[in-house]
């Protein structure tokens, strides 16, 4: 049997080159993985947190319903979204004022339930709400 002898030097040089290539690929892959992890973390954070709305654009009353009520007027055909927002905010502030005043009167009488007479008292005793005089007569 004849034994073949191979030159092993080319194995060592190629292994060194392969290991250098492997290390550079490993470094670039790890950098790419870090970028992907950061992007995924940002995406998860974005999905978990609801979009923040500015306090001035948040309303408690449904804007679509207010828009429909405004469109019920035969003189109104197109309603601007800014106008709807302003009417919605004004309505909220009006109702808040009425409720606070009625609550004050109600708590003075040591009651826990608001009644029509509380609103009548508010309309008759608060100057800025006097325009509602007779509105509760039904």
Automatic annotation (TrEMBL):
Residues 1-31 are annotated as: Disordered. The keyword Nucleus applies. Keywords: Nucleus. GO terms for biological process: DNA-templated DNA replication. One of its GO terms (molecular function) is protein heterodimerization activity. The keyword Cell membrane does not apply. Residues 59-122 form the Transcription factor CBF/NF-Y/archaeal histone domain. It is found in: Nucleus. Residues 16-31 have a biased composition (Low complexity). GO terms for cellular component: epsilon DNA polymerase complex. This is DNA polymerase epsilon subunit 4. It comes from Papilio xuthus (Asian swallowtail butterfly).
């Amino acid at each position: 049997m004849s034994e073949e002898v191979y030159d092993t030097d080319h194995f060592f040089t190629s292994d060194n080159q392969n290991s250098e290539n492997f290390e550079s690929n490993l470094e670039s892959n790890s950098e790419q993985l870090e970028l992907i992890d950061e992007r995924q973390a940002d995406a998860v954070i974005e999905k978990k947190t609801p979009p923040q709305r500015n306090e001035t654009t948040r309303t408690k009353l449904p804007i679509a319903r207010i828009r429909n009520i405004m469109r019920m007027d035969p003189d109104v055909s197109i309603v601007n979204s800014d106008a709807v927002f302003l009417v919605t905010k004004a309505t909220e502030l009006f109702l808040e004022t009425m409720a606070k005043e009625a609550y004050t009167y109600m708590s003075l009488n040591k009651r826990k339930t608001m009644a029509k007479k509380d609103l009548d008292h508010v309309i008759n005793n608060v100057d800025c709400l006097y325009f509602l005089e007779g509105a509760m007569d039904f």
